[in-house]
Amino acid sequence: MRAVIIGAGVGGLTTAALLARAGLEVVVLEHHTYPGGTAGTFFHRGFRFDAGATLLAGFDEAGVFTRLERALGVQFPVRQLRPGETLMEVWLPEGRVVPRPVGRGFELEAQTEAFGPKVKPFWRWQARRAEALWRLAPGLPFPPADGRELWGLLQTGLRRTRWAELPGLLADLARPAVAHTPDDPLFRRFLDAQLLIAAQAEARRTYALFAAAALDLPHRGAVLPLGGMGVVAETLAEAVRKHGGQVLYRHRAERLRVAEGRVRAVEIALGGRRRGEREVLEAEVFVANLTPPDLAALLPGPQAAPPADGWGAFTLYAALPEAALPPGAPYRQWAGEGPWVFVSLSAPGDPRRGPPGYRAVSVSVHTPLAEWQGLDRESYQAKKARWQAWLAGQVERLIPGFQEAALFLLGATPHTFAFYTRRKEGWVGGYPQVHPLRTLSPKTPFPNLFRVGETVFPGQSVPAVAMGGERVAALVLSRLGASATPVPSLASSMRP
Fold this sequence. Notes:
The protein has helices at residues 10-21, 64-72, 104-115, 120-136, 147-160, 166-174, 185-198, 208-214, 230-242, 292-296, 377-398, 402-405, 414-421, 462-479, 490-493; strands at 2-6, 25-30, 41-44, 47-50, 78-80, 86-91, 97-101, 223-225, 246-249, 251-259, 262-270, 278-282, 285-288, 311-321, 331-334, 341-345, 358-368, 409-412, 449-451, 494-495. It is an alpha/beta fold and 496 residues long. The protein folds into 3 domains: 2-41 and 57-77 and 229-304 and 437-495, FAD/NAD(P)-binding domain (3-Layer(bba) Sandwich); 82-220, no CATH class; 311-426, Polyamine Oxidase, Chain A, domain 2, CATH 3.90.660. A 7-stranded mixed β-sheet has the order 7-6-15-16-17-14-18, with helices on both faces. Strands 9-2-1-13-19 form a 5-stranded parallel β-sheet, covered by helices on one side. A 4-stranded antiparallel β-sheet has the order 10-11-12-20. A hairpin with a 6-residue loop joins strand 15 (331-334) and strand 16 (341-345). It is globular, with a radius of gyration of 22 Å. It starts with a strand and ends with a strand.
């Protein structure tokens, strides 16, 4: 039984590795030269930069990556952050800097010091809701893809829900996070900055249950990836190969062949030294680690576009001497005047990120996709230059002397993400979590085609897409009856 996974993002690779371990013949197709997609790490002038995602959690005892290490027999190269260690610092108006330490007790102490005792009820509510959600999260398929998942959802809810919590959980599906906050503009701006990273929407729009889980990530096994975020995808790709699967780079899926209501094969365009060649790969199961518009582009029928409220990113990559960096947390966020800016620094002394004495820096800010559409080349280059100059100026607020100390500056727009990650219009981050039905089911109109990634529940963040990969692997195996039948070799079913 062959399964083809289109896209070597973290969700697709998680699915691929678990299916390979179960005995399926697995082939992962990736158009780029390295895995990870927007959670990948690329080389430039001797440094490794995180393309998009930089925050990593899920390494607590019950975390998804701890489960995957046990199931797949691999080890992710990370440094676990200790309780009390500061993960992030947030700059607010009036010069206030709020730390986010690891551990809820430490966080509550830091929040109380920054905003006063009025925020304690909010963080106690957040801790209760997050704990309830983490009890439910393993095996929580939402929305259900079939009757088996529906039954699993009901069983999980009945077994793990404390009935006294149920009214509050249901209410928080419908009300925004801001309903639980005190009337403090600075605290709400702090929450807006945090939720825009994890939920793609501010506190007044993010539904409260998702917000509670998103705000809890620093306390769910937060780590620093050694070598950059891309080591997660690289380790998962190794796991695919370890269990007999293949990860094929420079293999771009161009079209899915459909017959009699099922996907039968994928047409592939090759790159590199085989640029211009075409092949067709047949399989019984297909998994698309693609956004809905990008999956629609491979299928007959109507095409799709990113949501009107979907975001792009403008990202700036730089290399700085260690001596030019003021002491502080590895993640720093500007939430003062103007748009929020997020700065990620490589771990101190990480030899895989760059030469000794230097740190790799990734800086990102949200940008509306519409702003980058319909530009001619000259207008695009001028707009990119303006954004890069503005963003570099914003970083100066966090790292004085940034532009003068940087060895180089490299900018990326939504067009850049569209080119390298093949995401339509450069849409990143998934759907803004404004209501619980925003994320999709893995099912598609074809019974042997599944989707995975940040648009599938539980949604955004690297651990979330890995959990989605676990879910899709279980769904595929349940559809197959957890059996795997050998098929002819890859070479015999791959043809021009």
